[in-house]
Design goal:
mainly alpha; Arp2/3 complex 21 kDa subunit ARPC3; 2 strands; about 0% strand
């Protein structure tokens, strides 16, 4: 199997696993958002294959989540909260390579980019949920951070060892036998 075919297969598996894990909620917030491990396969894949492949797998995952039960109030909100937000997780791949500090930086970049997408969506499309007199930016940041911060910590704790384990397997699979 060529490396390109293997990468496409791995990306599809990461997106599918992300969809499955999105339905295993550890905690759910009342207006949407939940603590899950849905980012773990996407982060591991991005750290293994880089940003381009990571963004593609994340975008696919976001589209799958949108099609299988996404909450939509506006077409732009749907794009921002699903394919763009999950595609942004793939930015973790910018820090592809060995070294725990690089991997943590990748997790922070991917998770932070996803948070930015959700905060922007919250400000533009869900400002009415903010209590009267509350700064809508702070409200959206705190609301979205409430589920994304623990999700990123849990997903990162799973993604880093997974990426390290898979890195050895990818290297073995690519070598001639």
């Amino acid at each position: 199997m060529s490396d390109r075919t293997r990468a496409l297969t791995e990306g599809a598996v990461a997106a599918a696993l992300s969809l499955v894990l999105s339905n295993l909620k550890l905690f759910a917030l009342p207006q949407g958002g939940s603590v899950t491990l849905e980012m773990a396969p996407l982060l591991a894949f991005a750290l293994l294959r880089g940003p381009r492949a990571g963004i593609a797998a994340g975008t696919l995952s976001g589209l799958l989540q949108l099609f299988f039960g996404g909450y939509v109030v506006h077409p732009l909100q749907a794009l921002l909260d699903y394919p763009v937000a999950f595609g942004a997780v793939g930015l973790a791949g910018i820090f592809r390579g060995d070294g725990l500090p690089r991997q943590i930086a990748g997790l922070l970049l991917g998770g932070g980019a996803r948070l930015l997408c959700h905060v922007l969506s919250g400000v533009v499309f869900f400002a009415s949920f903010a209590p009267q007199g509350t700064n809508v930016w702070l409200y959206s940041l705190s609301y979205n951070g409430t589920f994304l911060a623990p999700s990123l910590i849990l997903s990162g704790a799973a993604a880093i060892p997974l990426a390290r384990r898979l890195a050895g397997k990818v290297g073995q699979a690519a070598s001639p036998r």
